[in-house]
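Dear colleagues,

I hope this message finds you well. In preparation for our joint manuscript, I am sending the TonB-dependent receptor (Pseudomonas duriflava) sequence together with its predicted structure, so that both groups work from identical material. I would be grateful if you could confirm receipt.
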Amino acid sequence: MSTRQQRTAYAAFKISTLTWAITAAMQGWAQEVQDATSVTEHMTIYGQADSLDKALQEQRDSDSVESVVHADSIGQLPDDNAAEALQRVPGVSTERDQGESRFVRVRGLGPDLNSVTINGTLVPAPESDRRAVALDVLPSELIQSMSVIKTLTPDMDANSLGGTIEIESLSAFDHDDLFYSLTAQTSYDENQNRFSPKYSGAISQRFSLGEGFDNFGVAAALSWQDRHFGSDNVETGGDWDFDNGNRLEGFEQRDYVISRERAGGAVNFDYRPDDDTSYYLRTLYSRFKDTETRNATVFSFEDALAEGETGETVISRELKDRTETQNIQSYVLGGERQLENWTVKAQAGYSQAEERTPLHTDSASFISDALDAGFYDGEQPHAVSSTTALASSNYTLDEIERSRSYTSDTEKNIRLDLAYDYAMAGYDSQVKFGGKLSRRTKKNDTDVWSYEDLSDYGLTDDALSLSNFQGSTLDYALGADRYGIDSDAVNGVIARLNAGDFYDEEESLINDFTMHEDINAAYVMNTVDIGDWRLIGGVRYEGTDFQARGTGIIDGTFQSIDRQRRYHHWLPGLHAQYQLDEDTKVRAAWTNTVVRPTFGQLAPGFVIDDDEAEFGNPDLSPLESSNLDLAIERYMGHASVISAALFYKDIKSFIYNTDLAGSGAYADFSEAATYANGDKAEVYGLELAYSQKMTMLPAPWDGLLLGANATFSRSSADIEDAQGNRRSISLPSQSDVTGNLMVGYEKDKVSLRLTGNYKSDYLYEVGNVSDKRYDTYVDDQFFVDFSARYFLTDNLQVFFEAQNLTDQPYYVFQDEHRYNYQYEEYGRTFTVGLTLTHF
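The corresponding structure tokens are as follows:
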């Protein structure tokens, strides 16, 4: 059996329990029925039984196929991290950074192909090159609910292929009276053996203004966490030479020490003077401060080596030390008014995301003379070298690279929606129409300083010896322990030099850009209820004006770039749902969506140096997708549902990285790396979900809550390089299998939950269009988490959480599993805390 076959069999074994649980449930449970009150298109998941039941009620009332995570009755999401809470729902998985869930994938489509809104306004992205929003920036205490909408109606922004993630923050009308919740906790990181505190609180109250009764509400939430953790890493970065005996050109061993401080706050106001009128103001601010110290040992082989061989090797010891702060702020003002058969809604939103990275050391590199070294173990490369090879006296400071950067992403919008209720041939109907104006600006400004040839500035080899920069001992689990590099000592060298002599104008200007994206949208749709049917049909128009300004460099000569594009999309949609019986619904939808390329792909800057070029492509077309969905849901009582959904996406103009060398203007180039539009791609799959509160069992087993979901999907896309070489690939970030298992228990004062989350391996990046051996893949992962809560009193609970009990690493490989691209491990995290509530 081949390595790939073994891994496929292993993945199938791990997911079989999910399939068994769902299949067994679908073979016929005789259940008590739950009243059905409306016809909708929703799929919903929450924390434990009460929050899950609320979600299922929303599922019945929505006009979109949708998955929801909701805060429970004491104002807590079922997970500490917003992204980790979302990964529990059907069709959703996450991309992790340093072991923490950050970016959300929906139905196997990458995070940049999904959108995020807070209280109805788009959340921009802090990173300079992305559209994806890292949801771990948002403290979970500020969130009342999160919805993943998988079929968009025409009144919604059409800017997602997988799904739109809608986040709603706390409102005073979520509770009948005074509500507050205060939490204090500490977590322990196994990798760094350090403790991290966290404090959070939320409060809401309703007041009477004028002659009204409880018609004005104020809600506020605060959260602060200072988390200390780390990881151990070894990576080749793709330095395998598959054309000459699968040899390795070099690898790095990295030790990370990280502190992440999260702070956030929200203050929301609601005014409802009568039953027909409401006004609201939603505000949210979140701050994410990431401090990272990375020590690395880099082995560069003069000639590529096979495992077990040794040869001439240059070893460098490197330091990266930076602090990065991301801020997200959002303000939404709106209102709704009913005037007989008319409903009028208006909203204005402003949101901004920014990332500041003050002046820091990107790399301080100390290089040895040539030594004899090699490696063993292709999955986790270890060094073969003398015991003295890493001695500090062997290394001399060669180069320091310093930089600072600032990115901002601002979106302003205003929208108006009008709906009119009427009778169409005696059937209840509603026509709805409106429009939205959106103005988005993305800016990036980077400055780089490269300190080289330091001996020319009066610094001797003795002064530049690594022995003078020795820091504390590193606890590195994937190789020999060694001393780190002292960043203060590195800064002391820089302080002696004139920064102006080392300013790198080329690296600074190439990364600067300003992009404007203006979208004007309008729609019309009609809803009609005919017996057990609900039909929704309509069309949305979106016109986009795009402008990009930046700088290109041709053999050292700077050139200003200014590109403009204008394009339009008409996006029809049709939704149908049928009430099969009191507790069973069938839903179908045909929708059309459009997603613009990422800002990194659209970047106008370029570098042409002799016969090598690298550039973005501001002329890229957006991705267009025609989507088909078919779903059936059966409600079986309190917090109980079983569902299945089929989906298919026909995608045009998907984007991939390519090399234009050897063609057209780049005929004489050895490399011309950029991005291109593919012709066509498709994604299709099946989602299964099941949850049930086991009230039919005798005590104490009637407190059990079971849940399982799985998504089985496939994708294919054709890519082509400049020489006409073509092949088919899976879409990047698309896992064939994702799934969750949950066993919960709630009885009296005890609440327990054990969860498992699985995703199969997926294509990470195309390395060479003409040679699939250079493609990289992310290995499959299976995470197990546990949480326990005990109510000391009706208002005071103690809780314990354990994350990553399986101690899952992050592994990226090239071609086959035995060829490392990146391996990183994090360890487990344990948390204890207290929560005081009143509601």
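For the figure legend, we might mention the following. Helices lie at 3-26, 49-61, 82-86, 487-495, 505-510, 599-602. DSSP finds six helices and 43 strands in the chain.

With kind regards,
E.M.
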